[in-house]
Amino acid sequence: MKAEERRKEIITFLMSQQKTVSGGELSARFGVSRQIIVQDITVLKALGYDILSTHQGYIVQGTPLAQRVFKVRHTTEQTEDELNCIVDLGGTVVDVFVWHKVYGKIEAKLNIFSRLHVKQFIEGVRIGESTELMNITGGYHYHTVRADSEEILDKIGDALGERNYIVPEI
Q1: Read out DSSP for 87-142?
Q2: CB 102 within 8 A of CB 75
Q3: What is the pLDDT of residues 56-70, one digit of tens each?
Q4: Do the beta carbons of residue 118 and residue 87 sit within 8 Å?
Q5: Alpha-carbon distance 42 to 33, whole Å?
Q6: pTM value?
């Protein structure tokens, strides 16, 4: 398979996925090394495809999924419950961001879409002896959440509200 044909198949495959796809998975699927996959992704980005590279793999940002930003507040101990609530209802936690009075918007990409990813995130924060971004703004933060439909996002919003995580709009 020629490089141009492979790149077309890679972008078609990535756009059909609703989860991250690892470089190893792409490498095995297309019969090339991971280094070739990295080069192909670089070329595809240069061609204008909005591909996000994460520690868990690649995902195309411009997906036809419904998306909503939730403003939330909770304790560090409640983070796992908040994230599990979202993924259990079919959402993907795309990112977390805060609005800092001095630095402005501070954002981190997450792409958490399963309980396994939630567990890995929580463990990563614990092992890294790091603190969550929300702690610099008194627990207030935002999540961009994607799902298959607006109805699923409504259910996620309702569930977060029932747990008193949603910050009421003033």
Answers
A1: HHTT-EEEEEEEEETTTEEEEEEEEE-SHHHHHHHHHHHHHTT---GGGGGTTEEE
A2: no
A3: 899 988 655 688 999
A4: yes
A5: 14
A6: 0.65
